[in-house]
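Before the break, one more example. Copy the sequence into your notebook; we will annotate it together after we see the structure.
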Amino acid sequence: MKAVHIDASRSYDVLIGGGLLSEAGARVRDLLHPAACMLAADDRVFALYGGKVRSSLESAGIRTEVWTFPHGEASKTLATYGELLEAMCAARITRTDLVVALGGGVTGDMAGFAAATYQRGIRFVQIPTTLLAMVDSSVGGKTAVDLTHGKNMAGAFCQPSLVLCDIETLSTLPPEEYACGCAEIIKYAMISSAGFFDSLERTPISEQTEEVIARCVEIKRDYVMKDEFDTGERIFLNFGHTFGHAIESASGFAVLHGEGVAMGMAAITRAAVRRGICPPETAERLCALLEKYHLPTETGYSAEELVSAALSDKKAQGETIRLVLPRRIGECFVERIRKEEIPDWMADGGIGKAEGKGRTE
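Here is what the structure looks like once it is written out:
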């Protein structure tokens, strides 16, 4: 088992290894001493792992209430978040109790937001069951739900008290969900380490799972500890996300988050090559590695759809928006551009030209 410690407004450990679902109750009890918890999971994840986690928590003497919701990004709404808050009230969850988020990024984001706002804030534990959530969304304290006009537009910063990454849950991930986690892993290598990128080219992620997850968490930890509330350097973690979120929104979230990030990274890197910011080899190697994990590098949504969605991005500030651009593999920088320049950047990246809609396979 590997452990990564994070010192933020709340200090906590991220544990990575096998068998952690069965140990969840004892670890939560010994660290946090709650009388009760609300176990939140989508219907699909609860069917797979909810019984095991609930049994572990109850065996540790923690009264465990359960709340489930329909799986998928379409459920990550203010309405569903409100249902969770009402369930917590009905279960008489108190400020000394906690929320346990079991699942992927949708569950973690929504349950974390509920924890941040219920009775002005209670503790929560992340138990991510997807590769993407393990390497990214379960760590760092960003919690949110989507609004009609944009992804993650209502939320709060709320660090978890503990993160348990049981890598045995990855065996039940659909291939496309596993690939989405690979997209975020490739993102970490692109922004921080040519050596890490080289290792991903040489050795399949599946053959170095614990090491790769720990490396990504360490990279994110360093950014979070420098810039917990996302006012400066943490923007680098959004490499590929400005265009990626626009693609997700334009698709009505039929495009998965990791797929959108993959297309966004490829597009912004192609644009950087076209503008002489980075060498062609950077885009070639990035796209080859994305394709190795069956991730898309092209999209066919119209420019109008994508520009409108990009302008709603949280990184927009006044009449400008920040783009994370690659100089080379392992090194990026931030450039602020005027909003009216977005169509040109998209065109240079080879996206937003086609009139047809639909998910890129």
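The chain has two domains: 2-172, 175-348. The radius of gyration is 20 Å. Try to locate both features in your own notes.
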